[in-house]
């Protein structure tokens, strides 16, 4: 009973009533329903009513009218889980989803019910109408096709309707515009469930307002059934112009494709027609519509006219066209040949026979081949050297091609040859010819000319040949024989000699003249110092000449003259000879006097550097005797006794009262010791990577010949030349001291020396063994000093003898004297791993390195820079160059401020001092010497 009452209310009183899940009835009608149920509370409890309120069995088919041939509709359901049913004649695809099978249903109006079973069943109903399919068709042409191409410049078209009329027209996609205005123009239909859509009752298309493109026009009958559609292509006038990129093509080229001025829109077709030239032009795959690639290899050579026709275009008759002309030419053929593969140089010039395409050029990769005409291949065999040459024939242009190389051989009929000059003296070196033509020929000469020549080599025997001109012929053999001539002239040499009566003369003798034999007519000359009274006769002015040995030359200046040389000596009346000494193979130096001091065990050599005519005999202590202008007085440690060594000179020519003996007093020093110290200077090691110190001062030429130390020695500068080994090049002067073993402030002996790049200390002669005056076998402190580095000393006295001992201060394990507890006598900063060097930075020579304070190094560094004569503007950044103690890093430049400043090194050393525990800039690094 409750259900019947509910259905009555739903169907007759309020068909739009719905229920909400979490609310009361949604409108006044729903409220009436609630009250209706409430009036029957004897039959239905309030809980049941509230449960009904939470259910909503509404559904909706949109729209409610369908065509039998339309798309099966699917309802929108609020509460799923129910079942659909209908009055008879309607068929569901699925009663659970409510999909209606329109094709299977009978046209008519149906009441559809949706029932949800939940305790008390809830139902909802809706009416829909199915209309029978109505046959109709539309077309914008009368040829029955399913599409039509329309030009925008044409009149607006109206469709032809077949079947049911009175419907509406729509189109898709956007862009097509139906004609508006009165009399059944386009109208807008607005529906709540759809966007607005352009529709037309006539289907007339406004072509000018429409956008070119492809569109589908649909026709809907008055009953709302879409029964027909038609595709239209709206196009502008398409330019049919095109090209193939070139008017000429080669048969072996790449097949060309057409290039269009405008792309072809959908709905338009095209075809390419050969309108002139016949059937010789072929398209790839016979496609003359879509791709239209010309098949060059299959096409015949010739001229062609090709027309492009575009159908359904807006031109006359529904098409437009464009015609181009093109040419296909044959592939290049570069075959050629010569009449032979080998030609003689005296043959006529050969010309190539071209069996392929003319118009090319001949060439060779060998530039020595000369063409008389590169267009015909004519070879200039005379101008071309003998040899084999590759020749090619090249065609340029559209059908460029290069032939296979062909080798042509030119055989030398060239008998060219020559001699170095055309005139020879009979005393010259026998000449050989230079053959520039073909080798292997024969040399000959007229037997009457008196020339003696080797027929195979062409060597001329000048001494054996007659004087005068000679024509020489050279003849080659073989198929390409030839000959050539060359003329020479032989002139007989002059004959002369000279001789003086004696090989040597005194300045007081009568001036001598030589005896000249032979053709004569020459003149005399001599090495510098000899004076001639008459250069033509050779008379010598003895008194005006400087004593010495001379080479005299007698020369006859004719083309085939002669040069004769003889030696002669002029001695002075009282010759004074000088001598030089050398210790331990060092370079010889001039001895300052007749007394020579030499340490025990050293080797002494004495020599007379002048050249004189005579012999020298030596005598001395210990039965010493020797001969020669250079003598070794002692070797190694054999010299032990002092004494006088006498050189007795016997002159070959005694002129006046010349002395005949020289005495040399040798004083042997018994108290000597020897040592070989080694040391690194930190300043010269900074910035190096090869474990060798820099020798910038040497390479820049700044090292002085005079020592900067107190002993005042000098060198001649040759010791600063490049050494055989880079490690042996000189870095700077150093000063060596031996101090007393008991009183270590007492200096026993001292001397200047040099330190090399590897740290070796050598004496001023380059000896690695330093010899110092001290009691042999005694012990001494060894001190090394440098002009801007802090001095160092051995920690204990070292026993020294005549046998050298190595003292290596480079080794960090070498013990050094420490004056201040905790100090370090040397530094490892900037040094190679495992080594130490003397502290750098004592620019003012006060035996300490100071960065900041009263006696700072900056005072002398600044003074050096500002006092430099080149610093015209008193710039603090000026680099002062030269040898100075202010050059801390020993690079030849003193810098006060800027890139070359010395203070970086001084600062680093001050702050690295192990005694500067508070990193004070005023805390100096002190020298550790007593």
Protein architecture, described:
The chain is mainly β and 930 residues long. It folds into 8 domains: 2-131, Sandwich (Immunoglobulin-like); 136-235, Sandwich (Immunoglobulin-like); 242-329, Cadherins (Immunoglobulin-like), CATH 2.60.40.60; 336-411, BT4661 domain 1 (Immunoglobulin-like, Sandwich), CATH 2.60.40; 417-491, Immunoglobulin-like (Sandwich); 496-571, Immunoglobulin-like (Sandwich), CATH 2.60.40; 580-669, Immunoglobulins (Immunoglobulin-like, Sandwich); 672-925, Immunoglobulin-like, CATH 2.60.40. 7% of the residues lie in helices and 35% in strands. It is built from 7 helices and 69 strands. Strands 56, 57, 58, 60, 61 and 62 form a 6-stranded antiparallel sheet that branches. The longest helix is centred in the N-terminal third of the chain and has 12 residues, at 2-13. The protein is flat and about 170 Å long. 27% of the residues are buried.
């Amino acid at each position: 009973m409750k259900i019947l009452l509910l259905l009555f209310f739903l169907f007759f009183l309020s068909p739009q009533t719905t229920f909400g899940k979490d609310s009361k009835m949604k409108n006044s009608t729903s409220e009436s329903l609630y009250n209706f149920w409430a009036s029957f509370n004897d039959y239905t409890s309030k809980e049941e009513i509230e449960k009904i309120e939470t259910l909503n069995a509404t559904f909706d088919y949109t729209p409610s009218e369908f065509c039998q041939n339309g798309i099966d509709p699917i309802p929108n359901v609020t509460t799923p889980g129910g079942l659909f049913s209908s009055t008879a004649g309607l068929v569901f695809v699925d009663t659970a989803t409510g999909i209606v099978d329109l094709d299977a249903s009978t046209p008519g109006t149906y009441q559809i019910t949706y029932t949800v079973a939940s305790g008390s069943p809830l139902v909802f109903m809706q009416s829909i109408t199915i209309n029978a399919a109505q046959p109709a068709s539309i077309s914008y042409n009368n040829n029955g096709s399913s599409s039509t191409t329309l030009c925008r410049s044409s009149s607006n078209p109206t469709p032809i309707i077949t079947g049911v009329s009175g419907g509406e027209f729509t189109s898709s996609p956007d862009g097509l515009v139906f004609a508006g205005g009165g009399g059944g123009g386009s109208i807008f239909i607005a529906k709540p469930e759809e966007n607005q859509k352009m529709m037309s009752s006539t289907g007339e298309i406004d072509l000018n307002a429409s956008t070119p493109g492809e569109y589908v026009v649909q026709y809907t009958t008055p009953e709302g059934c879409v029964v027909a559609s038609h595709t239209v292509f709206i196009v502008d006038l398409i330019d049919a112009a095109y090209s193939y990129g070139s008017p000429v093509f080669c048969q072996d080229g790449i097949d060309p494709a057409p290039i269009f001025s405008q792309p072809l829109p959908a709905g338009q077709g095209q075809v390419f027609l050969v309108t002139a030239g016949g059937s010789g032009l072929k398209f790839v795959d016979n496609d003359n519509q879509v791709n239209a690639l010309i098949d060059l290899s299959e096409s015949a050579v010739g001229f062609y006219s090709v027309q492009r026709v575009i159908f359904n275009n807006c031109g006359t008759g529904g098409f437009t066209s464009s015609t181009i002309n093109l040419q296909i030419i044959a592939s290049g053929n570069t075959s050629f040949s010569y009449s032979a593969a080998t030609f003689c140089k005296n043959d006529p010039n050969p010309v190539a026979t071209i069996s392929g395409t003319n118009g090319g050029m001949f060439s060779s990769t060998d530039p020595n081949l000369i063409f008389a005409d590169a267009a015909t291949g004519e070879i200039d065999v005379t101008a071309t050297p003998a040899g084999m040459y590759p020749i090619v024939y090249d065609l340029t242009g559209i059908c460029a091609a290069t032939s296979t190389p062909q080798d042509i051989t030119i055989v030398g009929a060239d008998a060219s040859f020559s001699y170095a000059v055309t005139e020879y003296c009979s005393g010259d070196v026998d000449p050989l010819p230079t053959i520039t033509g073909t080798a292997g020929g024969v040399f000959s000469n007229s037997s009457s000319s008196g020339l003696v020549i080797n027929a195979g080599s062409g060597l001329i025997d000048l001494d054996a040949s007659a004087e005068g001109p000679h024509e020489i012929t050279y003849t080659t053999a073989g198929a390409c024989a030839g000959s050539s001539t060359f003329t020479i002239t032989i002139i007989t040499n002059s004959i002369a000699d000279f001789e003086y009566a004696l090989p040597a003369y005194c300045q007081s003798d009568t001036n001598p003249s030589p005896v000249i034999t032979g053709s004569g007519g020459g003149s005399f000359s001599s090495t510098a110092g000899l004076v001639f009274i008459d250069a033509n006769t050779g008379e010598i002015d003895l008194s005006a000449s400087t004593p010495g040995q001379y080479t005299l030359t007698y020369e006859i200046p004719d083309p085939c003259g002669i040069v004769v040389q003889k030696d002669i000596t002029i001695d002075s009346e009282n010759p004074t000879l000088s001598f030089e000494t050398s210790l331990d193979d060092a370079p010889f130096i001039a001895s300052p006097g007749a007394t020579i001091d030499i340490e025990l065990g050293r080797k002494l050599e004495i020599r007379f550097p002048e050249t004189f005519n005579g012999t020298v005999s030596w005598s001395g202590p210990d039965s010493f005797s020797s001969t020669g202008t250079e003598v070794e007085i002692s070797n190694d440690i054999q010299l032990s006794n002092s004494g006088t060594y006498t050189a007795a000179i016997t002159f070959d020519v005694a002129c006046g009262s010349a002395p005949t003996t020289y005495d040399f007093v040798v004083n042997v020093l018994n108290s000597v010791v020897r040592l070989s110290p080694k040391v690194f200077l930190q300043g010269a090691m900074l910035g190096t990577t090869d474990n060798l110190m820099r020798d910038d001062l040497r390479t820049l030429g700044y090292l002085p010949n005079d020592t900067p130390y107190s002993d005042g020695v000098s060198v001649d500068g040759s010791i600063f030349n490049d050494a055989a080994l880079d490690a042996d090049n000189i870095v700077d002067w150093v000063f060596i001291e031996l101090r007393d073993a008991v009183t270590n402030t007492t200096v026993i002996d001292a001397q200047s020396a040099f330190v090399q790049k590897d740290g070796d200390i050598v004496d001023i002669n380059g000896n690695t063994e330093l010899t110092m005056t001290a009691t042999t076998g005694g012990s001494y402190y060894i001190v090394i000093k440098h002009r801007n580095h802090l001095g160092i000393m051995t920690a204990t006295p070292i026993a020294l003898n005549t046998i050298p001992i190595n003292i290596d201060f480079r080794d960090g394990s070498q013990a050094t004297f420490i004056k201040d507890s905790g100090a370090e006598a040397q530094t490892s900063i900037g040094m190679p791993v495992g080594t130490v060097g003397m502290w750098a930075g004592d620019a003012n020579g006060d035996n300490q390195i100071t960065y900041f304070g009263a006696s700072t190094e900056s005072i002398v560094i600044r003074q050096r820079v500002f006092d430099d004569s080149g610093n015209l503007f008193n710039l603090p950044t000026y680099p002062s160059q030269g040898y100075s103690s202010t050059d801390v890093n020993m690079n030849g430049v003193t810098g006060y401020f800027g890139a070359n400043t010395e203070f970086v090194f001084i600062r680093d050393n001050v702050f690295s001092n192990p005694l500067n525990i508070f990193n004070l800039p005023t805390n100096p690094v002190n020298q550790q010497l007593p």
